[in-house]
Structures are given as C-alpha cells and as structure tokens.
C-alpha cells in the first residue's frame, strides 16, 4: 500500500509540476503529461482514497483521515463521498433512488425500474462517452448538488454545519483547480484553451477508467435490483443483499487487481469494507465457499473484457423497452 500510494501520487503530481514550470511548449507533450496525470488520478481514486475513507487503509485512523484527503487533492470531496458511497451505496446497493450510483441523468438507465425514454435505445453506445466526463461533472457540479440533497436528507445538522462543510469544499476545490488548471494557464507557454482541453482529456481518462470499473460490479445481467415492499423494507438480510447485487471479475490477474485497488473483488469489498483491498484475493475463496454452502450466488466474470461485454449487454437490455426483465 505504501509503494502504491507513493507511486500513484507521483504519477499524478509530477506531470503537473513539469507543466507548471513552463518549460513545456509542445502541445502534444502537454496533452501527454495531463493524460499521464489522469492515470495517477485514477490510481489515487481506486487504490488510496477508497481504502482510506473506508478506514481500511490503516489501523491508525489519522492515517486514514489524511490519506482520505487525497480525494480532495484531485478535486472531489472526502466528506461528501463518504455519505454517497460508504453510507448510501454500501447500505442500499442497486436499490433505485436510495443508491446514488444508479441514479444518473435521465439519458442513462441503470435499473429496470427507472423510467424508460426512447433515447435509451442507444445508451450502450453513448454511455462510455459520458463515463469519460463523469469526473469533470463530479469535481465541478456534482459535489454541490449532492451537498444540497444530503442536507435535505438530514446528514448536515443545521445550517452552520452545512455552511462550514461548504466552505471546506470550496477551499479544497480552489486549491485543486488552482494547481491543476489555473496555474498551468498562467505558467505554460501554450494557449489557455490547450490547457483546458488537456485538463478535460486528463479527466476523461480518469472518468472512463473509474466509472467502468465500478459499473462492472453492479450493472450486469446477473445482478439484481430489489425493491422495497409496501412498508418500505427490502426483504432479506444485508449480507445476502450484497451477494445478489454485486459481481466480481478478472480474479486471476494480480497485476490488474493491484492497479485498480482490488475493485475486481467487489463482493469481498461490499461484505468486508473495513478490510484493506490487498487481502481480498486471499479471502475470496472463503467467501465463495461460504456463499455456495448457504445456496447464495457468487457472481464472477473470468476476465475484465468479459465483464465489459456483460455490462454492454446490460446497457442494451435496459435501453430496449420499459420494464424489461433481464435474465
């Protein structure tokens, strides 16, 4: 974890430092440096902050706290993400409206219970483009939209707490955007609009990588989308719910798993989010055997590309017509 942390932070920061020195006048090299930084950003998101905010990076909670701020460093916000991911997504996985991960804009449909529009017939084609733009939306607008939503849900007690958190969010974004976008526009000899396009390219790489990896775990034909009953209760226990709504992929590729922060073992992560991802491979055999013993599913795709194919198939199914049953 320490090696990965140092490596990903260097891959993210070093190219931007080079751009900020003003010694790079080549447009293509500028793009290359920003794209390289995008890979580092994705590595921070999947391999550092994810464990830290789950308090599973270290037994020392101060280490988890400060490494969680690496999410703030790349333009998002740890406090907001903790609510959206740790609380809502991990508690209400694949439950429409409750799980914010499957509540996208109207032109994307990630559950058979969501209202169908004719544009969804093409979502298996255009979704990937919007995956690439997801982190641009995240760092510019989505954090503020979620803050307002979470305030209405009662996560911020009183206006003072909300305003204090809002001030922190704005300050962190000023620092991040200042280093990644504004300062390069000032220091670099290339045109400001080139820097802006390179910035978007960086985020496109990050967004496409991160969103695809997370989608493969939940939006595939084998996962389920349970609904609450008339009393607003989802039947079954929480652990079984995670097995029905989550899928693993590419379990034999150690290097790939290392690069994406063990997120190919999403079942283990959802059941045991307080365990560092470096242990998922070893405990996966125990989880699989236990699921089999109790007659519960253990969804697993043998490779990354087979999982991508299944996600593509699911997007096409969900885009075919309203209330489509997927088997």
Account of the 3D structure:
The chain has 327 residues and is mainly alpha-helical. It has one domain (2-318). Helix content is 63%, strand content 2%. It contains 13 helices and 2 strands. The protein has helices at 2-21, 27-53, 61-68, 70-73, 78-91, 123-152, 158-187, 192-215, 238-245, 254-259, 266-271, 280-293, 304-318; strands at residues 247-249, 299-301. α2 packs parallel to α8 (192-215), α5 packs across α6 (123-152) and α6 packs across α7. It is globular.
Task: Annotate the secondary structure layout.
Blueprint: H1 2-21, H2 27-53, H3 61-68, H4 70-73, H5 78-91, H6 123-152, H7 158-187, H8 192-215, H9 238-245, E1 247-249, H10 254-259, H11 266-271, H12 280-293, E2 299-301, H13 304-318
Parallel strand pairs: 1-2
Strands of the widest sheet, in order across it, are 1-2
Distance between the termini: 39 Å
Looking at the structure, what is the overall shape?
globular
Domain tally? 1
What percentage of residues falls in helices of 4 or more residues?
55-70%
Number of strands: 2
The portion of residues forming beta strands comes to under 5%
Order of helices and strands: HHHHHHHHHEHHHEH
User: Uncertain segments of ≥5 residues (pLDDT<50)?
Assistant: none
Mean pLDDT: 94
Radius of gyration, Cα only, in angstroms?
20 Å
Largest sheet: 2 strands, parallel
Which structural class do you get from the secondary structure elements? mainly alpha
Number of helices: 13
GO cellular component, one term: membrane
Domain Fatty acid desaturase: 27-299
Protein name: Acyl-CoA desaturase
GO molecular function: oxidoreductase activity, acting on paired donors, with oxidation of a pair of donors resulting in the reduction of molecular oxygen to two molecules of water
